[in-house]
Specification:
By secondary structure, the chain is α/β, with parallel strands linked by helices. The chain is built from 13 helices and nine strands. It has one domain: Spore Coat Polysaccharide Biosynthesis Protein SpsA, Chain A. The radius of gyration is 19 Å and the shape is globular. Manganese (II) ion binds next to loops.
């Protein structure tokens, strides 16, 4: 545990709502906005513990994030140690990075699957990407009863909407696209994930197939947990849109149109309001200004390349990975 762990420590750990984010230094400003929004919507009668898994977040950023603590929301940092599993993932990512147009070649994406192992004190936890903004109390997500299921997540709208991704999921993963979920917002039953050895199963697939995939961490999840997923109300993982429904509980700035890169994108006000008071606004504004035409072009090309990759991988006769 970091010496910068602060805040409440209620006696009954089960009464705490544990919320995990996984970041590197580059994600710190977005994570700050996300954490800030979480705290703004927290129920004053409950306790929350935000746990940030990172790969060596610098001291300054840890201090800045720690400043966000409130009376009933603690922040804790946990640096990922180089276990054999993590080494296998880092190596896999290095090989993937050589493929052009890859969004998902960072080991940070896989940290969420270490949570069950690293935190045996928790039976259940919420995971959120750092490109999310809360509009409602995350404790309500934590309270959802998973029944027999292992995780709760929403059907991935990018897969529903984009034909190339639908074909990719059906053919390359062998998962019906209507069942495929986004892993950017999840309620995880950590006890069940420990019991089924989720992490070592995933590492096994990585080692066995060394597959070049469109969204590897998420693709493995969908293959490993097929049939064991609770379908979350889409309001808990909404795409930004001009007319965001009133019931939206969380906005996820997934893949394109990040408000810290582009002006005049849907839900940008929601993002900038959440960033207010975090101490990161200046940095975020500068990032947006620096995101010139050249960078925008490269960003669009990356998205195009990802869709193309999906189309190409969908040409396979057999799934690229299977249990
Ligand atoms: Mn995301």
């Amino acid at each position: 545990m970091s010496i910068f762990y602060t805040g409440i420590n209620p006696l009954n750990k089960l009464k705490v709502v544990p919320v995990f984010l996984t970041i590197n230094s580059a994600y710190a400003p977005y994570a700050a906005a996300s954490i800030n929004s979480l705290m703004q919507h927290a129920d004053p009668k409950r306790y929350y513990r935000v746990i940030v898994l990172h790969d060596g977040l610098n001291l300054v950023n840890r201090i800045r994030l720690r400043h966000l603590v409130t009376k009933n929301c603690a922040i804790q940092f946990k640096k990922m140690t180089r276990s054999l599993y993590l080494k296998a993932i880092v190596k896999y990512c290095m090989r993937q990075r050589k493929g052009a147009g890859d969004f998902f070649s960072s080991a940070v994406y896989y940290y969420r699957f270490f949570i069950p192992r690293l935190f045996p004190i928790y039976e259940k936890a919420v995971y959120i990407d750092s490109d999310t903004i809360l509009r409602d109390d995350i404790g309500k997500l934590y309270d959802i009863d998973l029944g027999e299921k292992v995780v709760a997540a929403r059907r991935d709208p990018k897969v529903t909407d984009i034909k190339e991704f639908r074909d990719y999921v059906d053919k390359a993963l062998g998962v019906p696209h209507s069942e495929y979920v986004n892993d950017g917002v999840m309620l995880m039953d950590l006890k069940k994930m420990r019991k089924m050895k989720y992490l070592s199963t995933m590492i096994g697939l990585i080692k066995k197939y060394d597959a070049d995939l469109v969204a590897p961490d998420q693709d493995y999840l969908n293959v490993i947990l097929r049939g064991q997923i609770f379908y979350l109300d889409p309001n808990w993982n909404m795409e930004p849109s001009k007319d965001l429904p009133r019931g939206a509980k969380l906005v996820h700035f997934n893949l394109f149109n990040k408000p810290w890169h582009y002006k005049n994108v849907p839900c940008e006000r929601i993002f900038w309001n959440a960033a207010k008071g975090t101490g990161f606004t200046g940095e975020l504004k500068r990032q947006q200004e620096a995101f010139n035409e050249e960078k925008q072009k490269a960003d669009h090309e990356k998205v195009g390349a990802l869709i193309e990759k999906g189309a190409k991988l969908a040409e396979t006769k057999d799934p690229l990975i299977s249990l």
